[in-house]
Amino acid sequence: MPLSDQAAWFVIHTRPKCEHLAAGLMLGLPGVESYCPRIKFQRSTKRGKVWFVEALFPSYFFARFVPSVSIRAVKHSQNVIRVVDFGDQLIAVPDSVIQMIREEMDGQVIKEIHIGVKVGDTVELTEGPMRGLKGIVNSVHSGEERVKILMEFLGRESLVEVKASQILTEHTPREAMSGR
Hints:
Number of domains: 2
Largest sheet: 5 strands, antiparallel
Shape: elongated
Radius of gyration: 22 Å
Mean pLDDT: 87
Protein name: Transcription termination/antitermination protein NusG
Keywords: Transcription, Transcription antitermination, Transcription regulation
Order of helices and strands: EHEEEEHEEEHEEEEEEH
Low-confidence stretches: none
Strand content: 35-45%
CATH class of the largest domain: Alpha Beta
Structural class: alpha+beta
């Protein structure tokens, strides 16, 4: 299969959680540009709220290069599994798609995502004596800092008010980014 002499964006498959490392190393290759959009978000854990940074597309990032010149260097770059192809045919990602992703990321490489809660969400308490119990958000107060949750406890339903930082929502950061 003849390789193109035109620079284009391609999807690069990497080892898990190594996207940003591979993309960073690829910047050192002559004639290769990489783009690895990532998101930063807080998640409740047993230790409290913790910040996480993950690739927007886990195990994938984008690289722009001329295949006839750089395909070997890209394929054999550290943490790279393969350049995504279909039937041994490299498929370029249109520049317009990369531009749309950059716009969605507000021009940032790492975009901070806030996973909010809304009325009707099922949540789990992460702190206090009722840790692990689930309930449904009944109302959100004072700028999303406090939340009233309807919980079934000891055979009856009760409204409990807690700090928003003490609950874990079932929403994912990618859902929050897409506005669902």
